[in-house]
Amino acid sequence: MKIDVLSLDGQSAGSIELNDEIFGLEPRMDLIHRMVRWQLAKRRAGTHAVKNRADIWRTGKKLYKQKGTGGARHGAARAPQFRGGGRAFGPVVRSHEHDLPKKVRALALRHALSAKMKNGGVIVWDKAEADGKTKALKATFEKAGLKSALIIDGAQPHEPFALAARNIPQIDVLSVAGINVYDILRREKLVLTRAAVDALEARFK
User: Fold this and answer.
1) pLDDT in tens, 15-55
2) What distance in Å separates the CA atoms of residue 90 and residue 112, rounded to the nearest whole number?
3) Is 162 in the same domain as 67?
4) What pLDDT does 7 receive?
5) Could you give the number of structural domains in the chain?
6) 126-157 pLDDT, tens per residue?
7) Which end of the chain, N or C, is less surrounded by CB atoms within 10 Å?
């Protein structure tokens, strides 16, 4: 499919042919959902923990005799039902990661790109370069109607542009190596440079 290429200030800069195998698929929400779950689970720290009864310093002496009191048969004050006792079934330090095949992850990225294209959320720029002034870049984005966007450049984003954009809310700038399904979905627009398109097509060739 063919799409118009724009300059940073919104002027026409020609057109580019996009690969239908990357941008023209019928989106599968199940693959995209699996990928987002995998990403969010992978970034969880898993450092949550509480003290169970083995971690509580308290006497292990039996509270009272087993029979004859009319009460329950308690064996230690560290039991969860007592104030100051251990927590029952509390969280432990663990990893939340789960496996997702590499081919499924690659396919999910292609379907996320296709979904964004189908919704009309893909913009192609000739290049993403600026003089490093946040105020000027913000005015340019407002003129172009970019309020929420993920901007993907080539192997290395233009440093002054990235520095100017990082203080603008809901604007993310990544290299093509950092493109991912979650960030594509969480922003309204996906902006690709010519270099990013070429790199993506080479990646999925």
Assistant:
1) 999 999 999 999 999 999 999 999 999 999 999 999 999 99
2) 37
3) no
4) 87
5) 2
6) 989 988 899 999 999 998 889 999 999 988 99
7) C
Alpha carbons 170 and 150: distance in angstroms, whole number: 8
Residues 120 and 185 in one domain: yes
**Closest C-alpha among 150, 24, 44, 166 to residue 95:** 44
The structure's pTM equals 0.83
Range of the domain at 78: 50-90
- Is 121:139 a contact under the CB 8 Å cutoff? no
Residues sharing a CB contact under 8 Å with residue 176, sequence separation 6 or more, in sequence order? 152, 153, 154, 155, 195, 196, 199, 200, 203
CA nearest neighbour of 36 among 94, 117, 98, 120: 98
Domain's final residue, options 31, 59, 90:
90
E strands, 48-165, are 122-125, 149-152
Q: At what angle do helices 102-118 and 29-42 cross, to 10 degrees?
A: 120
Residue range 74-93, pLDDT digits in tens:
999 999 999 999 999 999 99
